[in-house]
Amino acid sequence: MKYVFGVDIGGTTVKIGLFDVEGNVLDKWEIPTRTENDGEKILPDVADSIREKMKQMDKDAIAGVGVGAPGPIDAGGVVHRAVNLGWKTFNVKETLEALINLPVRAGNDANVAALGEMWMGGGKGYKDLVVVTLGTGVGGGIIVDGRMISGSTGAAGEIGHIHVDDTETDVCNCGNKGCLEQFASATGITRLANKKLASTDMDSVLRGGEVSAKTVFDAVKARDPLAMEVAEQFGKYLGDALAAVAGVVNPEAFVIGGGVSKAGEVLIDYIRPHYEKSVFHGCREAKFALATLGNDAGIYGAAKLVLDAVADR
Fold first, then answer.
1. Rounded (10°) CA dihedral 78, 83, 85, 88
2. 79 neighbors 106 (Cβ within 8 angstroms)
3. Is the dihedral of CA 313, 43, 8, 253 positive or negative?
4. What is the pLDDT of residues 173-227, one digit of tens each?
5. DSSP 3-state of 229
6. What average pLDDT does range 50-71 have in this prediction?
7. How much is the pTM?
8. Do 226 and 202 contact (CB within 8 A), yes or no?
9. Contact between residue 303 and residue 5 where contact means Cβ atoms under 8 Å apart
10. Which among 72, 112, 116, 279 could bridge 297 via Cys, Cβ 3.0 to 4.6 Å?
11. What's phi and psi for 114, nearest 5 deg?
């Protein structure tokens, strides 16, 4: 076995990568995600694209295809509804295997991305880690002893939906109120900043301009007092939540990714003090690092899913 495909299915595009077994990406490309008619074309499109690439390859040298997709996917490859794709409950692994006649492994996209960061990214060198993705929402993936934790229905690692605030009256996208995602995502940080701007007369470079997670942390770097208060709120919510996570899985490291992580080490400067204040002493030494694979984390992790399955045979 020399090669493996990694597939990351997003709501707009499907990213596909061809890797060697050492983790080197040999080629990568994208195809549109066709979500109409309950996403019935998505896996056939993936199969067609991979088959086209395989025309130039020795099929016997291909270990298989790994897939990450948004939504709970259990260890058997069954997706339990993926709303963004239009998918209901069905077996992704078996469906794609029938289309492509190669071994397939599948997992939740955030969990799979965590596996990628452990293998070739910001978590390289660690076997027990938690990856937190701060984007439009807050995603997460948990790796224990080098293996991705899926949970009974594939919903493990939903860090963004840890309850952190009893006073919140707005509803999270999941239907609950007071989720971490409402305070630590890019949209959550923007929300915190707008509330702060409305509740105080403090001078700030954020007044009268665009308010976003990026402009908030740019203002933090410029030592803007209001922005720094917002960052302190963000850091407390996330630091306290990660302290709770640490008490359950005791990771060696937390790897922070997603669009917000482009702010850099300043994020960790605001998260770590609250984490260390709240965490159980046996977990206090966990390292914090930034993710390095960016949008490619999913295809790396999907490829690693297959290689781990091959190693277990």
1. 40
2. yes
3. negative
4. 889 999 999 999 999 999 999 999 999 999 999 998 899 999 999 999 999 999 9
5. helix
6. 93
7. 0.89
8. yes
9. yes
10. 116
11. -60, -40
